[in-house]
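pasting for the record
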Amino acid sequence: MRRTEVIASQADQDYSLIVGRKRKSASVYSRLAFRGVIDLGAVLARGDVPFDRDAYIYQGVKAMADYAQAESVENIVFVDKSARPLWVGVSEYWRQAYPHTDRPGFYFMNPAFFRRNIARSDSAEHLARSLADTAQQTIVQLQAVDSPLVDSMDKPILLVDACMHSGKAVYVTRRVLETAGFQDVRVGVVNTTLQDNDIAAPDIYGTNNVAATRCLRSEDSSNLVANDEHSIFSMPVHDSDVLRAGSAFRAHIRTVISEHFLP
């Protein structure tokens, strides 16, 4: 296949998934409903609850940390806002499980910036141009803060989100990073509802239980950042009540992880 054909094929694929696949569309709901009944039955048969947040936190964190260690992933990028608190869990798990191994670098990116820049694409060609422009802006913003990510674009990077339904949000972020020049972008989520053969399916996940459609999400009151559609970096929140709630939620995550290592 010629290079121009490969590029055209990638552009068509991107357009189909990013623009054509609506988040939680009717087809997604239909698929989730069918699998949800099966998964819910399995969960109840074991005597579990459909959504055990602490169990999902541990399973997701363990999956990300073990994968990063096994695959020699040097950098982990957490998707704001839902996945941001997970850095605490991955850090604690790594400290306990791999005390003599250097922990990957932790970074955060704001998907609202990527979505805004490509939302009005009306063709595969337009989308390709939008991806290229957004990728260039991403590199400029990373360089502006002297991010070490710029010097590690040839190394594996793990993009982590809390949950995945259509897969569109994380796919957009991954494609922007790949277009920017990151050569090996992997995706990990706490819980996914996608089949393994879906083009947007993650490389690693904690669980794939459709019954747990809530996935892992902190309450809005504990989000320490707010999305900014004009930057790849989220804005800090300064409300004292939010800061206390955020700190408490992160302390809880650390406790959930550390309790699994108690003798």
